[in-house]
Structures
1.
Amino acid sequence: MGVNDVINVAIIGAGAMAREHIRAFASVPAVKVNGIHSRTRAKAAALAAEFEIAHVCDSVADLYARTRADLVVVTVSEAALLSVGVACMAHEWALLLEKPPGMNPHETRELIHAAHTENRRAYVGLNRRFYSVTQAALADLAPNDGVRFIHVQDQQNLAAAAAQGFPPEVVAAWMYKNSIHLVDYFLTFGRGDVIDVQRILPYRGGTAPIMLARVLFSSGDHGLYEGVWDGPAPWAVSISTPAMRWELRPLEEATFQRRGERARHPVQAHADDVQFKAGFRAQAQQVIAALRGEPSQAVTLERALATMTLIEQIFADDVDDLNA
């Protein structure tokens, strides 16, 4: 695929996330969104009219046949992602799957198996890795060899999730659906492999107010996961080293502090993170770069499985659950 060849993108789903992906991909040069499929055709037709998408299709097979797209972006519900993802892999396009890539690591592994069987490239939309402030922190920390302490603060509420109408099986897998937003920061900033997870205050199905887990990396980096259930708490991430400290709170904003300073310096978000859903345009650019055979930070299914596995290790009720 040449650098000037137009890349055709197809969309599955017609909700808010589909709309944001359409906006992001349509803004990338030499990219055209030319087809959409959703189980609710009226919603798909509305998005097609809004963004001048040529084809509104009735099935995955119809979407591929009419678009011959190079990439399909899958934005369906968590419960449907495995079946839709496997169906997509029967066709000769690459995939970008919205997170989480399955309801649990087992489903992620099934998707990986299908991708390998059909020889498909598959990526996962972990867009917070592509926030401009995340990228700024990574660049600033890169020359520093000091040990990193990564503190992730999460807040969830299962009763609130159920009240919003999410089905019981999704609520039960809420850590994969929602805490993935936070847990993925460990693998974004932690260096090396995860070699140990110690559950200091274990997860108790959302009934315990606080949970804590320590994460150790082969590099010597340390992480602390702090989850507050049914109580006020931020979504926040801090990365501390002997030379500097970065803090993302809220996650789309950042400050840094140098050794010997008291002041925290704010970091301005890139305009793309204001005009588009944060991280989406940079993520789209990275996926397109991968399709063109260029260097890319696009998150593969295999890399996403590492995050899903870490969630499993942090949230397991007891050690036997890890081997179930």
2.
Amino acid sequence: MKKRNRLIWLAALSIACVISALSASVVLAHEQRTVGKYTFVVGLLNEPAYTDFPNALDLRVTETQSGKPVEGLEKTLQANAIFGASTMPLTLRARFGQPGAYLADLVPTKPGSYIFHFTGNVADQAVDEKFESGPGRFDDVTDLTALQFPQKAPAALELATQVQAAQSAAATAQIFGMIGIGVGVLGVIVGAVALMRRQ
């Protein structure tokens, strides 16, 4: 019986170590920063992050002194995703059963560095903070083609460009076809008039 209890205890300890290691890696892949009276933890929900793969902004806010989660920020805090010169507003929503945790859906389409910009209020405190991906913070977005095997699929942006080009070529061919039909009809009319005059 003692041997069985020892095995159960060792199994429980092993599971606890694995969970601890996993949670530590999640924290390391996010940036933690004190913003006035509050602590912000910001990153991407799925890391490593890949292009054209659904992801989300992951935000957690607590009171620094007490560690108490801050709720209701989906109503008072605005978030924007920034990549180069492009900006997109994000819709924050509270995570069910996780007080002080928020998500905002995002599908990154280009590899590189992303910035999350927060403005608005946390309780009575105004906020204007930018969190940028990179070493020591949270992961940059990586090109998904690096993982594709055995055949590399075209990126969604490249595929959309190809479809648009094909549609444009088809529209141009249709216009030329209509012009050709018009010229043919005109030729038949001119021929018929000439024949009538001869008779």
3.
Amino acid sequence: MTGVKRRRRLVGVAVGAIVIITTAVLLVRWLPALVVTAVLAAPRLEPWAAPWLGDVAREDVEIPFPAKPLAADLYHPVRSRPPRSALVLVHGLSTDGRRQPDLARLARLLGRSGLLVVVPQFDGLAAFRLSGREVEEIGAVLGHVQRHAPAVGIAGFSFGAGPVLLAAAGRNDVALVGSFGGYADLGNVGVFIASGAHTFGGTRYVERSEPYNRWKLASLLTPFVPDDVDRVRLASIVDAKLRDPGADTSVAEGTLARNGRAVLSLVRSRDETEARRRLAELPASARAALEKLSPLSAVPKIRGRLLIAHGAADPSIPFTESLRLAEATGGRTRAVILGGFHHTGATDLWRAIADVWRLVGLVDSVIALR
């Protein structure tokens, strides 16, 4: 063998070794994120995936808050070494609250990967209410968790993402903030729920929104009706519709005053023009609350790393709201739009498969929290 051939063979062996070692390192580096992503996409894989992740325990805890302590689930790795960081997960509008199955699965998986995961119960969100008190509650949770972990992150889902962004704005002690399926402007969300229309960057989209969400929207708006009697009457109608959207509430609706009727007129709008007109006719207290609870102006004040993701087929909050949030960062982050996902899961298997690496990247960013 000539010297040239020998050198070429040695170079080939060296390159092959580098490729193998690099591939192995990347697989080890990305393995937890790959496993977590696989189980999130296919929950039946969790028993199979358990050996690749650590054990996790769940505890019921209470977090101090002036009005009353907040119940929370604490997921932590079963190991002698303390977790390197903690992550707070904030649920959306769900009667299951912190025990919503998909959220509990995510918390369990992230706990298996080595994080201390805290999932508080927000009674307002569980009752389809968004009052602003949630921002204060989240602030109290962050302050409490920071005493137990060197680095803290927080992620909000759906309507829980808005209070998360508002609570995290201006804080230097939150390393990572996530908004998944969240919103920028509640007025835009109201128009979408009523009409299916949403816009961004000069492009208008019209989708099929989820009909049941009309009554979730009414539930969100009811506390901001200023007249006590009108508010109670509207609440009884909305509660009946949340239990059974087909319930006949016509007699009760006839007793409503102007502000109560304004809320019903909005949720029953059928096109964008009408919805925007009805939005402007809401009582001033409701319009002020919607503006105060919209996190668009707070996003530039967030100092930790910001992750934004949304399902393209979301029937509850349009994906353009996440594009709007990302735009407000001035290029600091981009929204990850997942083509095969809606509000809570996959809609199209092949598109979901195409989303896998973007999902892995998101999960890895959370797992690598420092």
4.
Amino acid sequence: MRRIAILVGCLAALLSLIVSGVFHASERSRRRTTAQAALAADQGLLVVYARPLPAEASRLSFRFAAIEAVREDGGPVPLAVAFPDASVKSLTRERRLASAALPAGRYSGLALRFSDVTLAGEQGRAPLQASEEPVVVAAPFTLEKRKAIVLLLGLEYRDAVATGFRFTPSFTAAPPPKPAVGLLGAASARGADSVVLFDKSAGNVAAVVPTGRGPSGLAIDSERRRLYVAEPPEDAVETIGLLEQSVLSRIPLRGGDEPVELALLPDGRTLLSANGGSSTVSVLDAVSAVETARIGVGEQPRSITVDRSGRRAYVFNEGSSTVSVLDVAARAVVATIPTEAGPFRGQLDRSGQRLFVAHRSSPSLTLIDTGTLTVTSRLYVGNGATTLKVDTASDRLYVARHGARDVQVFDPSSLLPVDAVPVDGDVSYMAIDGEGNNLTLALPGLAAIDVVRIVGKAATARVEVGGDPYAVALLGER
């Protein structure tokens, strides 16, 4: 029996190494893909979203065969169409329709071509004749270098279907309205090299901000209206102005640092960066945009959690299966806590006395007493945890797992599952909007952000961000 136990242990360790190797190989592959997609120095980004079709267009369906941006000199530039099929059923909300990196300059609008146009009737669907000439949409805009323009495209249905079964559509295109600053949310889209700003209540896109390659972790400063973005392939952290909707500054780190996630201290000035490549934490002055100190931690730190006072930070070291405890003022590690294999994210409960730690290679969460800095127990949640979140209003714990179709909800006292939130795919990150009492979920497989009511669990909005969303940050987040 002892030999069997040893064999099982060896097989488990081997499987953990294989899973870890596949995970990191996919990360390297993703970074190579992202590097190829980055904007050139003389380019800007155009993103077109489609408005929902009006109710009177319920019988109409069509495909966007081609979408082009029209330069003022008359030269069309094609966009990559991500969502070609249009009908009332498929366009019940804003959809990310097309995008492209374009030469900076002045443009007069868009040119649209259509195919497979049909109209439903008593005898079934009848084909409509689409013009061979493109439909021109007047929407003048100036695209600046390393900036983005978002256009909302809407169908004016009144004269879209003419006699003789001809499709004669008229469209409008305009920038989206700016929501009140307090309603802003942000999502990092690694696959699109950008951050998407959105109305966290309505789910409408407000702006797209091009960044360096592979933006990942976010930290938001509600008072200064600033968003900080970690960029592992760039070895840098960028600052985005939420009012300006553009990159304001850049903090370069050392080559090979690969900053993956960030944590902003309550002072609003001190920013901590978990550097997965160099196994360090950088202490950054977010206002002056400089690195002021560097702390060595365990191998491959993946994220950081800071207590409410800002005096202590917990760093989750996936490579060494430890949690480093930092005295922030002293810029030093005061304890190293061994854990289950592959810790990558943690959350403090409302009192700050319990730390929940999720692992890549363990079916259980580790519970750490922050007073004694010791592991007190383990909470079984099942294999494949992808992220976790504590709701500080109720102290309930939310846990997402790979392949599950829901997010489990655990009672803070009994630590038993008491509820579940249905989801449409794997969740990589969760945030809670304190004002709207909503759970905001990053869904990489759908390239989208979902907004779900905590009470009632109804999905209220979906924001398509263009590729591989990593993290979410909200003004008014709790």
